[in-house]
Amino acid sequence: MILKQIIKFRRSLASKLIVTVGLTLLITISTWAYFNVNYQEKKLMNNIVAGTDRLTNTIKLGTHYAMMSNSRDDINQIITNIGKQKEIQTIRIYNKNGQIKFSNQPSEVDQLTNIKAEACDICHKTDPPPAQLELTERIRIFDSSKGYRLLGIIGPIGNEPGCATDDCHVHPEDKKILGALDVVVSLADTDKEILTAEKGIIGLAGIVFMVTSTIIFLFVLRFVNQPIRKLIDGTRMIARGGDPGKVHVDQDDEMGQLATAINQMSTEISQKQAELNKQKVEYQSLFEQVPCLITVQDKNFKLLRYNDQFAQSFDPKRGDFCYHAYKGRNEKCVNCPVEKTFKDGCTHYGEESGLNKDGSEVHWIFRTSPIKNDQGEIIAAMEMSLDISQRKQLEDKLEKSEKKYHEIFNNIPNPVFVLDMDTLDIIDCNDSVQAVYGYSKAEIINTSFLNLFTEEEKNRYADSLKTKTMLAQVRQLNRGGLTLFVNIRISPAEYPGKKVLLVTTSDITKRLEAEQQLIQASKMATLGEMATGIAHELNQPLSVIKTASSFFIRKIDRKEPIEEEILFNVLHKVDNNVDRATRIINHMRQFARKSDLNLVKVQINDVLHNAFEIFSQQLKLRGIDVIWQKEKKLPRINADPSRLEQVFINLLINARDAIEDRWGPQVIEKADKKIILKTRSAGYKVVCEICDTGKGVPQAMADKIFEPFFTTKEVGKGTGLGLSISYGIVKDCGGTIQVTDHEPKGACFILTFPIPDKNHETNNSAR
């Protein structure tokens, strides 16, 4: 039992932590002890070397004077006295030949030492010997005959001037080294001290290791092993399905955090398991209740499993073949999708037909998917089939409906285009396109709708087609290059796979021609109504010309001279009146000319003045005052000046007739016969008001006054087309026209035109 626990403990994380930490601690402490021992040894040796070196220098200093005076007794005495110290083994002085001349051991004196010996080789390994050596180079450590270590330091004795006598020793000046001093001391005490230090350090290291190891062991058992056991027990309990939150570790460290995390994981696992169980139930319910046929088959096409829908539809039996169960076959299908799935492991889908229990034909769309085990091997195949019999019926109906739609589409009398919303390319069109434009479907499909416009107008309509729903009186070209006027209606629509524009065009060329004829007839009628005024306008310059010509004839007949000044003045008046008559005639000719609508930027004050000039004399004869209230610097508007002038003339005629209906045609001094002409700018619009002091327009007639053939005049005095044509002209210019009451009595026609740009272009004319 104990052995089993030991083995179990050896395999535990705690034992591994203890061993790992223990080895780390052992290595750390051993390393510390090793380096500490070396440090202490080195320190002691450095001290003994330094002491020995000081002793050597002391001996050299002590014997220096005796050597200089060649006092051998003094030298021997000094060496003998110093050599009596306990740690000193030998003190020797060698001459240059290696002969011991002085020693604390008298028996060694005069002995010749081998120059290759360790002590001598320090200096004599080079020839000549060096004059100076570092202390580390002069040291040797060796063993004595008794087994303890010795330290020797040898130092050179240099040649110095001033020896005592010539008979003693006289050395040449080039002789640098005369001998050497060799001091050998015992390291026995030092070694004992080192050994004691080593034992102390090792003992301390052992104690530290044991104490630390014990603390670590107890720490691991308390804060690692016990929490881990609790975590293991709790995790096993969680694995067995135990209640979450049962792992308790009373620590705030990572172990406590791990316990908390395990408890959270347990809670989440329980929640996920509950959710998984719920999903399992839902999946089972979905599998059974999904409104399609689901089967699971083996490689032999036997039914392993199927849902309720399949069971209700065909009453299969376990182990029945799929092709027999719901396809009424005795052998597998020729192109079996399940067989393909088993072969390639891919999903297959398509359509197939079969028979219901009642023998009726049924259509399905199917999809097969492989079912694999953990090794990736296909063990079964799932086939899902959806009844599309109703969809098939709807497709047949849809096909018939599409044929009907195409028949209707192609029989619409107006051209209909289907355009790509981005490129404006023609995707489809009806047969009416060929009747109006002359292009067949094959010729026009996949071409740009913009090709039907003139080159100058392509860019303008490219944006308008994408942003507007209606384009009026658009100029287009047919296959033969002839101009067509059409109204275009645009509506966004959905087309298979893309967004399109459904464009319907209406050919209004003939209608516009009729309107042109009507406008021209209206112009001629207006000229007819203006005949009296025009006659008066032309009568004045003709009278001047007639008077001048009579004056010249009379002078010529009488052969009377004509003064140069009189001649100049008369001719000048004739010239001015001829110009005036010419302007009136040209103006009338231009007004009466038939022309298409041509919008240009015009100054509304100028057009209003042109209309008034034709009419001014007529109004003057009837005693009608014209009051001008105009803004001089008005922005320009887009309009056809000729047709806009026709509008103003029609309104002036109506104002004249309304005043005459109220006051009569004769000049009455106190009659309030006035026509007020106002122009002004308001925001991004230009407003023109033509008001009169006539009988006014009854409120009940205000909504009908612009309708064709509606008139308030007596029979024979009006066609009822003037205001209707004026309404159409103003609308073509992008403006509006309305009638209101003018106080105290009378009518006021208000025309409003948009300003084509924000720059508010103005005309600086002072008219």
Explain this structure.
The protein has 767 residues and is an alpha+beta fold. The chain has 5 domains: 36-193, Beta-Lactamase, CATH 3.30.450; 290-393, Beta-Lactamase, CATH 3.30.450.20; 412-507, Beta-Lactamase, CATH 3.30.450; 510-596; 598-767, Heat Shock Protein 90, CATH 3.30.565.10. The protein has 19 helices and 22 strands. The chain has a 5-stranded antiparallel sheet with strand order 2-1-5-4-3, sandwiched between helices. The longest helix is centred in the first third of the chain and has 56 residues, at 13-68. The radius of gyration is 66 Å and the shape is elongated.
Task: Annotate the secondary structure layout.
Layout: H1 2-10, H2 13-68, H3 72-83, E1 88-95, E2 100-103, H4 118-124, E3 139-143, E4 149-158, E5 177-186, H5 188-239, H6 254-289, E6 293-297, E7 303-306, H7 308-314, H8 322-326, H9 337-344, E8 348-355, E9 361-372, E10 378-387, H10 389-411, E11 416-420, E12 426-429, H11 432-437, H12 441-444, H13 458-467, E13 470-477, E14 483-495, E15 498-507, H14 509-529, H15 531-557, H16 564-592, E16 600-602, H17 604-621, E17 625-630, E18 637-639, H18 641-663, E19 674-682, E20 685-692, H19 722-732, E21 736-741, E22 747-754
